[in-house]
Amino acid sequence: xxxxxxxxxxxxxxxxxxxxxxxxxxxxxxxxxxxxxxxxxxxxxxxxxxxxxxxxxxxxxxxxxxxxxxxxxxxxxxxxxxxxxxxxxxxxxxxx
Length: 96
What we know:
Layout: E1 18-19, E2 22-23, E3 28-30, E4 35-40, H1 42-50, H2 71-76
Antiparallel strand pairs: 1-2, 3-4
């Protein structure tokens, strides 16, 4: 059975802080020294969504951007998309 220590951190995330071997996402609440995994900094999150940035490292994603989230998840976050098209089942590869 693999452990967190067995999984290498991708090069793109090598400069990110870690906690217990896990990369601290860019959108996590942090004071620069202490990081609260699971606690989302709302401003950072919305900036990433608006500016097409990765929520893990804060870097630009490029376009098109695909977001997989339920309608309930959108409403819970207070996000109102201009247009939401459901993902077509045949558009998703089984090995993704």
